[in-house]
Amino acid sequence: EAGVTQFPSHSVIEKGQTVTLRCDPISGHDNLYWYRRVMGKEIKFLLHFVKESKQDESGMPNNRFLAERTGGTYSTLKVQPAELEDSGVYFCASSQDLNTGELFFGEGSRLTVL
Amino acid sequence: AQTVTQSQPEMSVQEAETVTLSCTYDTSESDYYLFWYKQPPSRQMILVIRQEAYKQQNATENRFSVNFQKAAKSFSLKISDSQLGDAAMYFCAYRSDQKGGNQFYFGTGTSLTVIP
């Protein structure tokens, strides 16, 4: 069974540019999360999808961030325009049964904004 | 909001020895879940162990066990007979059991080095 895959693994962009990160969850997992880790800090929640619906987007930093999950399969996270403080590792995780507490993570997409 | 604190940015242990990683959390809730996740270098983060707050018995998974002190809001991870493959970043996490409590709160992580 394929795990959670994220693309790209590393992206380097200039301030003001746009970047789109993609996450393919494990097939059949309704729950999809985006998290972000800034260097040396905690992993912070961004948002949670249940199928194609945004269940909780309280962690999204501002309106420069847009997440979508069309059809309830893969998800994209777009940052437009990117700022220096957006640099970090963006993790995607999926889960079918939240009661088990087991999130299946991707390897993360490292974003560097210059 | 709930917070999770890992006060040890880095730890090291001799192979075959035992190491304990500390984690404390802050919450006003009585029902919740606690987890330890592990992220090996350049690999996905995986679940190591989980604990339901209503259970008094400490969870164990082979060489991994926890010391859950609910009153003290402490949740440490003990790794026995450490192996080279245990080297990783370890994250402590909290999730509410209340309705709508779908967020996982993570600590800043502890980088564990295993010395051969």
Brief account:
The complex is a heterodimer of chains A (114) and B (116). Chain A is an all-beta fold and 114 residues long. Chain A has strands spanning 5-7, 10-13, 19-24, 31-37, 43-50, 53-56, 65-68, 75-79, 88-95, 104-105, 109-113.
Keywords:
heterodimer, A: 114 residues, mainly beta, 4-stranded antiparallel beta sheet, B: 116 residues, 6-stranded mixed beta sheet, 0% helix, globular
Topology:
The complex is a heterodimer of chains A (114) and B (116).
Chain A: E1 5-7, E2 10-13, E3 19-24, E4 31-37, E5 43-50, E6 53-56, E7 65-68, E8 75-79, E9 88-95, E10 104-105, E11 109-113
Parallel strand pairs in A: 2-11
Antiparallel strand pairs in A: 1-3, 3-8, 4-5, 4-9, 5-6, 7-8, 9-10, 9-11
Chain B: E1 3-5, E2 10-14, E3 19-21, E4 24-26, E5 32-39, E6 46-52, E7 60-61, E8 64-69, E9 74-79, E10 88-96, E11 104-106, E12 110-115
Parallel strand pairs in B: 2-12
Antiparallel strand pairs in B: 1-4, 3-9, 5-6, 5-10, 7-8, 8-9, 10-11, 10-12
Largest interchain contact: A-B, 27 and 24 residues
Distance between the termini of chain A: 37 Å
Cα(first) to Cα(last) distance of chain B is 41 Å
Share of β-strand residues of chain A: over 45%
Poorly predicted runs of chain B are none
Structure description:
The complex is a heterodimer of chains A (114) and B (116). With 114 residues, chain A is mainly beta. Chain A has no helices and 11 strands. Chain A has strands at 5-7, 10-13, 19-24, 31-37, 43-50, 53-56, 65-68, 75-79, 88-95, 104-105, 109-113. In chain A, strand 5 and strand 6 (53-56) form a beta hairpin. Chain A starts with a strand and ends with a strand. By secondary structure, chain B is mainly beta. Chain B has strands at residues 3-5, 10-14, 19-21, 24-26, 32-39, 46-52, 60-61, 64-69, 74-79, 88-96, 104-106, 110-115. In chain B, strands 2, 5, 6, 10, 11 and 12 form a 6-stranded mixed sheet that branches. A 4-stranded antiparallel sheet of chain B has the order 3-9-8-7, with no helix packed on it. The radius of gyration of chain B is 14 Å and the shape is globular. The mean pLDDT of chain B is 92. The interface between A and B is medium-sized, with 27 and 24 residues.
